[in-house]
Amino acid sequence: MATTEGQLDETAEGTGEARVGWRHTIDQVKRDTTARWGMYVIVIVTFVALFSALDANLNRLTLGHISNYAIGQALPLLEHPERIPPPGEIYRNEPPAFAEGGSWEHPMGTDHEGRDYLTRIVYGTRISIAVGFVATFIGLVGGVAIGAVAGYYGGWVDDALMRFVETIYAIPALVLVIVFTVFVSGGRPDVIYAVVGVGLASIPVFSRIIRSRVLSVREMDYIEAARAAGVKDRNIIMRHVIPNSFAPVLVYATLQVGVAVLIVAGLSFLGYGAQPPTPDWGQMLNYSHGLMHSSPWHSIWPGVAIMITVAGFNFFGDGLQDALDPRIEN
Amino acid sequence: MSVPGETILTVEDLKTYFYTEGGVVQAVDGISFDVRAGEIVGVVGESGAGKSVATTSILRLLDDAGEIVSGEITYRDTTIVGFEEAEEGGELVPRDDMLTKSEMRKEIRGNEIAIIFQDPMESLNPVYKVGSQIREFIELNRDLEGEDAKEEAIEMLREVGIPEPENRYDDYPHQFSGGMRQRVLIAMALGCRPSLIIADEPTTALDVTVEGQILDLVDDLRDEYGTSFIWVTHDMGVVAEICDRVNVMYLGQIVEQGPVDDIFHDTQHPYTESLLASIPRPDKTVEDLNPIAGVMPQAMNPPRGCRFHTRCPDAREACRDIEPRFVDVGEAPSHRAACLKHDDVGYWDSVPIENESRDGVVADEEPPAGGQETEAGR
Amino acid sequence: MTLLRYTAWRLAQAVPVLIGILFITFLLVNAVPGDPVRLMVEGQEVDQATIDMLEARYGLDKPFHERFANYVLGVMQGDLGHSFHRGMPVTELIMIRAPPTLMLVLSAFVFALATSIPLGVIAAKRRNEPADHVSRLLAIFGVSTPSFWIGIMLIIVFAVWLGLLPSGRLVYPWRDPGFYGLNNRLELWYHSIRHLILPMIALGTLQMATLMRIERSSMVETLQKDYVRLARAYGVPERTILRKHAFRSAQLPVITIVGLNLSTALGGAVLIETVFEINGMGRLIVQAIAQHDYQVVLGVTVVLAFIFLIGVIITDISYAYVDPRVSYGDED
Questions:
Q1: Cβ contact (<8 Å) for A11 and B278?
Q2: Would you say residue A307 lies in a domain?
Q3: Which domain holds residue A218?
Q4: A258 CA to chain C: closest CA distance, Å?
Q5: CB-based contact B47 A8, cutoff 8 Å
Q6: For testing the chain A interface, which of B25, B47, B238 should be mutated: the one with the most A CBs within 10 Å?
Q7: How many structural domains compose chain A?
Q8: A117 at the C interface (CB within 8 A)?
Q9: pLDDT tens for residues B192-229?
Q10: Is any Cβ of chain C less than 8 angstroms from the Cβ of B179?
Q11: Is A150 a domain residue?
Q12: Among all residues of chain B, which has the CA nearest to that of C252?
């Protein structure tokens, strides 16, 4: 293989790119301590969410009044419903274990209706995780579609789509989602509308990333070759352009899950997200807001849960970004 | 400023290593050369040969991972780099007479030794006016302030051939073309009146006509100001045009060194020959161009023996094991090379080896008439 | 001159986006299944005649395109409609409610910039050292924590437990000191700052965290540029390099992000105003939604988007001011 200086650089780059594959990325992420911790948090939280969502018995737990029991006590009760005491019998507002008057029976204390806080927090995971993933998926699909089409066709298609995207971006996401949730649901907001709203509100960022990638990929030789060979536009976009733009989108999607969790938490805090009795962290903060003076622990736990979950995604996304960005490696 | 012909910079057995996650990179591994007043000394080699590391070592501007581990660099009477063995343990520690960081900054950088980088597009700060950037460096390195410094900056712009320098002084870098920006950088360097300018591939990013103009300009300015240059390049054509003496580098070492005429007409190292064969020339077609075979090995794990043996068209068995010494060769007194051909260690008796330079076809070569060169360098 | 032309060009570009905002918001608000008037009067005893009267009054008996055209015409004359619930023009209502929101958002950015720039520069200067790792941790937790929860925690700690700072409401420095029972301007300023501190930190933390990371990575990148290496090679002291040679061009990405993040901050203000009981536009829109006062919802949304657009244009102009390549035309 004969080379002059210029070619030499090119070959080096070529082999480098082959090495920077998925395996390399995973290695990088594994080596980064924070990214690894982020991954652990994501796995654990997702597992907890799936676990609580799939189990119909546990589902009932969170809704009915028996959720005033700790998980360990509640499970056997489900098998013997006759032992469940009537509602209203044992409600009391109990502080967490470490505070005066608390007990390890309810490590985080109980809420204003006497329900075990730890149980509520654990089930809150389900809504947050579902919201995060589904909303991000909606944003991703919508954003990728718009961005790919705009970037690939250019011209007036690009202009029109990008103006639309800018318009959506100009309305603060939280406000857009509230208005969407309230008005599209006809005044009966629920978490489902919130999820779709957050998904729509996240389209702009995804489409911008994809579009800029497409603009650079479009000029590459093999795309030109495919076009010259008569491959259909749709196939070029699906097979070549989108896969090539995947890395930055993946990073952004990871971070966006966290953003979605935060927005929906805010929405629930205002009362337009998940509706009681479904346990949701934002909604729990809504309740606790009025009890700041008398029982401040109500305000602590849901916030900590949101923070840890979102931080998990952000740590992971941050590590992924470092791993995928060759500039930072040196 | 200085007596012509007087040696102003000496580099002796310089070693600069980079400590990376993957291991130690021996970027510069024991090089020696000197620069005399008013001359242009070339440092030539492929990218990755360690040329830039060598020159940044002179200004002690290595980034965090790089470290000068041994050797001496002397500028006139001051020690830029110098080591001695510690009293306990015998480790090399910086000597007392070595300049401190702040002395380096105040006494050497800019006012004695200036530098010009490869990419004129990146070397000027995009958010400040060109004139103010030159003026800042002049104020910092000379006893000129305010209006005087400004006048000097304009004078320098005129000197490097920028039309209407009074108006261009207030322009931003993006309003200059690549060649003009490189002229600005030369003005910047000259404005500080250094005795030595390190030019790190300053014409690589420019097209050939502009390159020619810059080379002519530098040649004129050298005569006018008596400034010495270290000219880093990978292009033997540039070397031929501008340099007085040449150092050919391969994988962190100097493999051949000498006056430019001798390097070109009495070439003593196969690597230099390969570099010369790859110069594009008007009298040759592209097919005649003979690029160097193979890829330069990693400086992390340099080949044993002669570092060039994996690509050398003349490599023989002996080259695998024996590290050639740097000895006097050829006719000129200061012409030296590191090749086993000039070393009495059995090169001529050993068998040619197969490597990246050929596919099993081995040329037979006889020892030059008159037998081995005698080595005076021992 | 060039900067002026650039400004005009950016303003002209904003017009289609503004019309788009009007359209999307109008569409959303009118997407109510059934009809908005029934929603407005939900739970009240109203006869059909009243409903017809209300529909006619808000022009709801007309087709969609006609209503939209009327709305756009109104907006162009500064008329954002009429509040059903409060019985006053929406424009007037927003004029009262906008200053607190602007004061809150601006102070949050001042707080964020004042903290993130020095912290980001230090992290960049000490890259991969403990200070850098700590700043990364702080930044990630900063973007991961809901601002309204930070607000609640701040209230619990500083207002409820320690009793150091007030837990809510703002004191407006432009009012008459007598309004708050204070004697002079100095006292007024003292109290408005005290009231502003907690909400400012709650809203500003997210911005601080984001900007700190941008500042760091931008500074790291700039410090590796050839022109910084060149300055070092000419003996410029390290402090001057940080403060002058690297700093100015490193602020360009920061400026862009400040503009774009204005949108997040305005959204965050909705929550922070609710937590701290600040009567700004954010709290207004939450109240208006609860009261089905849809003209107000529409008006506030449009004004928030408009403020965002103005903010982006201002940051674009500052960008052009810092980077001569923008205002002096394209490269080469």
A1: no
A2: yes
A3: 25-69+87-324
A4: 7
A5: yes
A6: B47
A7: 1
A8: no
A9: 999 999 999 888 878 888 888 889 989 888 888 889 99
A10: no
A11: yes
A12: B127
Question: In angstroms, rounded to a whole number, what is the distance separating the alpha carbons of residues B44 and B198?
Answer: 13
Asked if the structure places residue A15 within a domain, the reply is no
Q: Are B295 and B310 in contact (CB under 8 A)?
A: no
Domain of residue A158, CATH code:
1.10.3720.10
What is the model's pLDDT at position A323? Answer: 75
Domain C99-280+305-322 belongs to what topology? Answer: MetI-like fold (1.10.3720)
Digit-coded pLDDT (tens) for B333-364: 789 999 888 877 778 888 888 777 655 444 45
B174 shares contact with chain C (CB less than 8 Å): yes
Closest CA to C328 of B166, B136, B181, B173: B173
Q: Report ipTM for this prediction.
A: 0.86
β-pairing, B245-250 with B228-233?
A: unpaired
Establish if A12 belongs to a structural domain.
no
Cα separation of A270 and A264, whole Å? Answer: 10
Subunits with at least 3 CB pairs below 8 A relative to chain B?
Answer: A, C
Q: Which amino acid is at A126?
A: R
Joined tokens for residue C27 = 């569409």
The tokens describing A35, both together, are 């990214």
Between B and C, how many residue pairs show a Cβ–Cβ distance under 8 A?
68
Alpha helices in chain A (DSSP H): 5-19, 22-31, 33-54, 56-63, 71-79, 117-153, 155-170, 173-184, 191-201, 203-218, 221-228, 233-236, 242-244, 246-270, 281-289, 297-324, 326-329
Task: Say yes or no for a CB contact (<8 Å) between C331 and B108.
Answer: no
C86–chain B Cβ distance below 8 A for any pair: no
> Which residues of chain A are under the pLDDT cut of 70?
1-25, 52-94, 97, 99-106, 111-115, 187, 277, 325-330
- List the domain boundaries for chain C: 99-280+305-322
CB B295 to CB A4 under 8 A?
no
Separation CA B192–CA B102 (nearest Å): 18
Residue of B250, B295, B296, B358 for testing the chain A interface, max A β-carbons within 10 Å:
B295
